[in-house]
Amino acid sequence: MNSTARKIATATGNNPARGGTTAGVQAEMVAVLFRQFKPIVFGNLAVSLIFAWILWGRAAHDLLAGWLLAVFLLTFVRIAVMLRYLRRPPPAALALRWAWLATVFSGLSGLLWGAISLLFLQPDQLVTIVLVGFVLAGMTGGSVASLSAFPPAYYSFAVLAVVPFVTRMLMIGGELFQLLGLLAICLLGVNLYYSQVIWKTIRSSVMLRFENLGLIEQLQQEKERAESATQAKSRFLAAASHALRPPIHALGLFAAALRLLGRQPHP
User: Whole-angstrom Cα distance, residue 151 to residue 156?
Assistant: First the structure.
């Protein structure tokens, strides 16, 4: 188990090595969520810049700049929260609060990315339709692995990002746009399903680490018992040897005296 997990275990007052506790496992899952935040940072900053660059000549500059600024501000706040968590992991009793805090930020991020369907998608411009759909597919698909350690964090991001696109497609109408909306719903369903699969995989891995740590501790305890028994035996033998040495020495002298007496001639 890594150092973060050990800090969490110490803070709980419970020993996760003895099979782990629900709070301990949950706290480690939250730690995984925060440790996997780096891909989200890179994705939000890089993709938003590329998106704004492509749309710079097709959208209002002030609107696009305002959206980009909001994305950057939210991302930097999330970076600050992540660093605060990783530098000083909270007690396991508070881990769930941090997970929901991360969920709130994920939801806000989902709102910002969902807003591009309402602000920048132009039905008469194929470039904006393809770009918005491609960006949303990439962001929601790429965030599955990073946010699935706490599924509500991914759900809040993916649903809030995709639903505006689906709504916009259905409002525009037409066979093509309805098909795009249907595809977006299907993709969202697939991502939500794989989010659950990844969550179960991570949870099984965390529980297995707790169990392995428990086995290591049991072996250490057995080793300490064996060493303690060996030391006790050595101390007993040393004490017995020390205690028996004088009488044995006396018996040896007595036997020697008897031998001397036996060699003397009788009167």
Answer: 9
CA trace torsion 55, 137, 181, 74 (10° rounding): -60
Residues 39-49 have pLDDT tens digits of: 888 889 999 99
Mean pLDDT of 34-38: 87
List, in sequence order, the alpha helices (H) in 120-150: 126-142, 144-147
Q: How far apart are the first and last CA of the chain?
A: 88
The first and second tokens of residue 76, run together, are: 């930097």
Instruction: Say which residue the tokens 């990073």 belong to.
Output: 146
Specify the pLDDT at position 7: 46
The Cα 156–Cα 192 span in angstroms is 11
Give the Cα-Cα-Cα angle 101, 103, 109 (nearest 5 degrees): 110
**Burial category of 30 from C-beta neighbours within 10 Å (exposed 0-12, middle 13-18, buried 19 and up):** buried
- Pick 168 or 218 by higher pLDDT: 168
Q: What is the pTM of this model?
A: 0.73
Cα→Cα distances 7→91, 101, 257, 265, Å: 8, 20, 72, 86
More confident residue, 18 or 3: 3
